[in-house]
Structure to design on (312 residues):
């Protein structure tokens, strides 16, 4: 899902497709393969790439998919995943999604070390993709595991200054408040930050900031949300209200986000609709919350006091 001028875009056609296929998507979660030996059998090769002294190979069959890395004829890494998955070695270009080609061995972190990208995808309606980033020197190691959840467009891209950024989305609100196609999401940009804990990919808030909505844009979105509230349409409130709020928060306008909620009045948070506290309880479960929290300003008590709800 990608954005328009100032909030996430969504289409009725996409909603209908997602609604029809959402149920089947649950079949494609990532799990270890039932038969490790069979999944890694050399008679089932999928792909092979050599980067320096390391050779990455993938194997697949009905009951499993396997990634193996060897060096000098010795196995140094192996991972087995559920058989519904596909695997891609490196990042090939995809013109339809504006995904650029990135040469294997590219330094993705700015540490001056070669890296390798491996992505896995379950297939299905909208689920699930994971990117693995391996550092090849000074020693081989799995540097990061990036769980993209329902974002099948996640990728790395190079900025003009030579820095590599990871583009994905926050799908914390998937199936909230009523269905997948009704739920808000937000495109996020990550960069590698080296720290005492070994480093990791964190929100690049400076790259996500956008201009505040104009009065015309504000009034248009507010009017659309009011229609949904007046119609008591619980399916559309996720996008018309909370999609706007989520976008304002992530693009540097948290104060305006709270004002947008207030402008709709108390009815927008009464049954059958979720409240600001419900929204914030989920937001605090986001994997990006530790980076996002310090950027929030003038946080309302209903949000500040909301507690994450495990398993929601």
């Amino acid at each position: 899902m990608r954005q328009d001028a100032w909030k996430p875009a969504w289409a009725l056609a996409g909603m209908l497709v997602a609604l029809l296929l959402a149920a089947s998507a649950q079949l494609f979660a990532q799990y270890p393969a039932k038969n490790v030996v069979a999944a890694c059998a050399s008679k089932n090769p999928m792909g092979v790439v050599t980067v320096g002294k390391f050779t990455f190979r993938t194997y697949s069959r009905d009951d499993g998919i396997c990634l193996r890395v060897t060096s000098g004829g010795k196995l140094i890494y192996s991972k087995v995943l559920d058989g519904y998955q596909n695997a891609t070695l490196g990042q090939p270009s995809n013109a339809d999604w504006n995904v650029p080609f990135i040469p294997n061995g590219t330094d993705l972190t700015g540490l001056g070390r070669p890296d390798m990208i491996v992505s896995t995808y379950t297939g299905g309606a909208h689920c699930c993709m994971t990117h693995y980033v391996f550092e090849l020197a000074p020693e081989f190691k799995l540097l990061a595991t990036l769980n993209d959840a329902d974002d099948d467009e996640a990728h790395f891209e190079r900025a003009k200054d030579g820095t590599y950024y990871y583009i994905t989305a926050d799908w914390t609100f998937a199936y909230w408040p009523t269905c997948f196609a009704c739920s808000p999401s937000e495109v996020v940009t990550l960069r590698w930050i080296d720290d005492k804990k070994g480093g990791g990919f964190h929100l690049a808030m400076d790259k996500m900031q956008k201009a505040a909505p104009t009065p015309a844009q504000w009034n248009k979105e507010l009017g659309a949300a009011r229609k949904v509230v007046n119609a008591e349409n619980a399916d559309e409130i996720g996008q018309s209200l909370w999609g706007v709020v989520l976008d304002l928060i992530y693009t540097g306008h948290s104060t305006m986000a709270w004002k947008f909620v207030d402008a709709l009045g108390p009815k927008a948070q009464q049954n059958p609709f979720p409240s600001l506290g419900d929204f914030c309880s989920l937001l605090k479960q986001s994997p990006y919350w530790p980076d996002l929290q310090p950027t929030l300003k003038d946080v309302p008590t209903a949000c500040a006091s909301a507690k994450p709800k495990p398993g929601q």
In short: The chain is about 25% helix and 25% strand.
